[in-house]
Amino acid sequence: MELAAVCDLRPEAAERVASPWGASVYGDYLAMFRDAGLNAVIINTPHALHLEMVLAAADHGLHVLVEKPMATTVADCDRMIQACREAGVSLVIGQIQHFLPEKLAAEDVLASGELGRVLMIRDYRTTDYRPGTRPDWFFSETMAGGGALMNIGGHCLDRSIWFGGAPVESVSASTIKRFGVPVETDGAIALTLKNGVHVSISVVSDAAQRLDEILVVCESGTLSCSPHHGTLVRSDGVTRTVWEPQPEDIQEGFFLQLQDFVTVLDGGAPKVGVEHARHIVEVVLASYEAAGSGHAVALLDSAKQLSAGLALTDVG
Ligand SMILES: NC(=O)c1ccc[n+]([C@@H]2O[C@H](COP(=O)([O-])OP(=O)(O)OC[C@H]3O[C@@H](n4cnc5c(N)ncnc54)[C@H](O)[C@@H]3O)[C@@H](O)[C@H]2O)c1
Q: What's domain 5-96+255-272+301-315's superfamily in CATH?
């Protein structure tokens, strides 16, 4: 694979990425899709732009790796999936959690069966949604599709549903807007998965202590996983470390994600299917609905809904 071209509205941003590789620089992504001789694109832009950019990539016959969250509505996710299927191009979503070394160590422990069934999950991640802490578009409901839950909560949902082992059945949630910004800065989500596993997720802005931990309670012990403390397994009163954090862990995660994309371009299957990425968007939006109404929201069978949605679009 060769980095052939980079596009950004800010020429200096594109130049910074392109120059070490001798790649061309564009300010108009349609011109790049048309003229740069590409096979595939990585789309790394504000959330609401993912739709038009993925549709255009499909239209130009380009395989796509698009950042999370896949889109800001479930209908947009479906349009992206449909367009890529029809164009015969691959669509992969950058669900980075599935490639981070400490999460891979946790995946191995859970798959080995030594802790038995997963029974309950607690996920807590801090962030910062104070004005000025990130580009302005993150504070726009229209462009970001939401606030801390859409952006950071999506990571917690991603790993919780993955480790929990089943899609979400019902969601209740509450959201908080602080610092005078128009999107939620903090939120809590409680999920029941279809296999009965209970998940509680909290995302907190500007917390006293930075934390990013998923704690998995299993029949025969617990597992705790965070980029700061690595992956620890506790069983029968004894703790053992199965992953020590390394300075290059995040870099390694992105490397493995790109390697997965290369596998897909070579005809393999992605580690994370689009259905999972679509389900995360669906659950975030259900959590907004639950927070707004104060009632739990039940989710339909996501896979059936997806094929029904696509079939309906086919007919239309
Ligand atoms: N996986 C992760 O851990 C992770 C981390 C950070 C961001 N993200 C995701 O990556 C995406 C981008 O986030 P970010 O933090 O890099 O945002 P950012 O604002 O820093 O970067 C987005 C870039 O897109 C450019 N852009 C906007 N509109 C454009 C257009 N029409 N044509 C060309 N370029 C355009 C902007 O100029 C900007 O340079 C989001 O989906 C975000 O959620 C994922």
A: NAD(P)-binding Rossmann-like Domain (3.40.50.720)
Atom 37 (ligand 1) nearest CA: 9
For 49, phi then psi, to 5°, come to -85, -15
Exposure b/e, 53-77, CB count within 10 A at least 16 = b: bbbbbbebebbbbbbbbbbbebebb
Chain position carrying tokens 């030594």: 114
- Cα–Cα distance, 275 to 102 (Å, whole number): 24
Q: Which residue's entry shows tokens 């001798």?
A: 22
Q: Is the CB of 67 under 6 A from ligand 1?
A: yes
Q: For ligand 1, atom 27, which residue shows the shortest CA distance?
A: 45
| pLDDT confidence of residue 300 | 82
| Mean pLDDT rounded to a whole number for the chain | 96
Q: Which CATH superfamily is domain 101-249 in?
A: Dihydrodipicolinate Reductase; domain 2 (3.30.360.10)
Q: Do domains 5-96+255-272+301-315 and 101-249 have the same CATH topology?
A: no
Q: What is the pLDDT of residues 37-59, one digit of tens each?
A: 999 999 999 999 999 999 999 99
Tell me, using a 6 A CB cutoff, whether residue 7 lines ligand 1.
yes
- The minimum-distance atom of ligand 1 relative to the CA of 94 is 1
Q: Given ligand 1 and candidates 67, 80, 97, 250, which is best to mutate, with the most ligand atoms within 8 Å of its CB?
A: 67
Q: What pLDDT shows up at residue 124?
A: 98
The domain segmentation of the chain, as residue ranges, is 5-96+255-272+301-315, 101-249
Distance 67 CA to ligand 1 centre (A): 8
